[in-house]
C-alpha cells in the first residue's frame, strides 16, 4: 500500500512538472522588464567563465543545457541572488553551474541498469526498486554538490576580499592624508596591488570614471554584486561624508582597525576550533591504543 501511494505521488508530480514545462505561465510585464534589465546588465559586465581541461569535451552540451535552464529561470523571474553573488565572486557563469548540476544528476540516473545488473550478479534479485532509490539518492546528492562547492569557494574568496578591503581602506586614508581628493585617493589606492580583489575594485572605479558616476556608487554596486557587506558600508560612509576629507580619513582608519580586529578574532576562533578537534582526535587515538593493549589480556582471561 505504501509503495503504491509513493508511486502515485511520483507519477502525479511528474505529470504536474511536465504540464508546467509544456504550458508555462506567461510572466507579467514587470517580470519581463526586470528580466530584460538583468540580461542587459550581465551582457555589459560579463566575464569569461573558467573551464577545466577535463570538461572541454562536454563543454558544448553543458553550455546548451545550462543555457536552457538559465532561460527557464529568467522566464519564471527567479533572481537567484545568492547564487549569482557566489558566481560573480568566483568568476563563473550561471549557465555552467546549471549545466553541471543537471548533467551530474542525469549521469547518476543512467547508472540504474548497471546497478541492477550488479545486484543480479550478487544474487540479490532483478528488482528495480533498490537500484532506483540508490541512484535517485545519488542524483539528489550530485544535484546539490556544485552548490556546496560553489558556496565553500565563495566563502573563502569573500574572506580574502575583506582582507583586501581592510588594506584598501588604509591606503585610501594615507592618500587622503597626503592631500589628494576622494576620487583620486581611491584610484591611487586601487592601483597598488595586482590581486584579483584589487583588480575588481580598480575596474569598478574605472567604470565609474567613464560612466560619470561617483566612485562610492560603483563600490556599492560591486558590494551588491559580490555580496560583500564591507563595500556597501564603505560606499554609504563615503556618500555621507564626501565633502569632509578629515572626517573621511578618520572614518576609514576606524573601519580598517575594526576590520582587522574582527579578522583577528575570527582567526583566533578558528584556531581554537582546530585545537579542540586535534585534542578530540588525540583522545580517540589514545583510547584505541589502550583497547589494543588490553584486548589480548581480556581475551586470555575469558578463554581460560
From TrEMBL:
Keyword annotations of the record: Membrane, Transmembrane, Transmembrane helix
Presence of the UniProt keyword GTP-binding in the record: no
Domain of life: Bacteria
Coiled-coil residue windows: none
TM region(s), chain numbering: 6-23, 102-124, 130-148, 279-298
The name this protein goes by in its record: Type II secretion system protein
Amino acid at each position: 500500500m505504501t509503495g503504491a501511494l509513493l508511486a502515485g505521488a511520483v507519477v502525479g508530480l511528474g505529470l504536474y512538472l511536465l504540464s508546467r514545462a509544456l504550458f508555462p505561465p506567461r510572466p507579467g510585464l514587470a517580470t519581463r522588464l526586470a528580466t530584460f534589465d538583468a540580461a542587459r546588465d550581465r551582457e555589459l559586465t560579463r566575464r569569461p567563465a573558467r573551464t577545466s581541461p577535463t570538461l572541454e569535451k562536454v563543454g558544448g552540451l553543458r553550455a546548451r543545457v545550462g543555457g536552457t535552464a538559465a532561460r527557464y529561470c529568467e522566464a519564471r523571474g527567479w533572481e537567484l541572488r545568492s547564487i549569482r553573488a557566489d558566481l560573480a565572486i568566483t568568476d563563473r557563469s550561471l549557465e555552467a553551474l546549471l549545466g553541471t548540476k543537471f548533467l551530474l544528476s542525469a549521469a547518476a540516473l543512467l547508472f540504474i541498469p548497471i546497478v541492477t545488473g550488479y545486484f543480479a550478479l550478487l544474487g540479490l534479485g532483478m528488482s528495480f526498486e533498490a537500484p532506483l532509490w540508490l541512484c535517485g539518492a545519488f542524483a539528489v546528492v550530485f544535484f546539490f554538490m556544485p552548490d556546496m562547492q560553489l558556496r565553500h569557494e565563495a566563502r573563502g574568496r569573500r574572506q580574502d576580499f575583506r582582507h583586501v578591503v581592510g588594506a584598501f581602506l588604509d591606503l585610501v586614508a594615507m592618500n587622503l592624508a597626503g592631500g589628494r581628493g576622494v576620487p583620486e585617493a581611491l584610484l591611487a589606492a586601487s592601483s597598488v596591488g595586482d590581486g584579483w580583489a584589487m583588480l575588481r575594485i580598480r575596474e569598478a572605479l574605472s567604470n565609474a570614471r567613464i560612466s560619470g558616476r561617483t566612485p562610492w556608487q560603483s563600490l556599492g554596486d560591486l558590494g551588491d554584486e559580490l555580496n560583500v557587506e564591507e563595500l556597501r558600508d564603505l560606499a554609504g560612509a563615503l556618500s555621507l561624508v564626501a565633502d569632509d576629507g578629515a572626517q573621511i580619513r578618520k572614518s576609514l582608519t576606524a573601519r580598517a582597525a575594526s576590520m582587522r580586529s574582527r579578522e583577528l578574532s575570527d582567526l583566533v576562533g578558528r584556531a581554537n576550533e582546530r585545537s579542540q578537534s586535534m585534542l578530540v582526535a588525540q583522545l580517540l587515538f589514545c583510547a584505541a591504543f589502550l583497547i589494543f593493549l588490553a584486548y589480548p589480556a581480556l581475551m586470555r582471561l575469558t578463554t581460560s
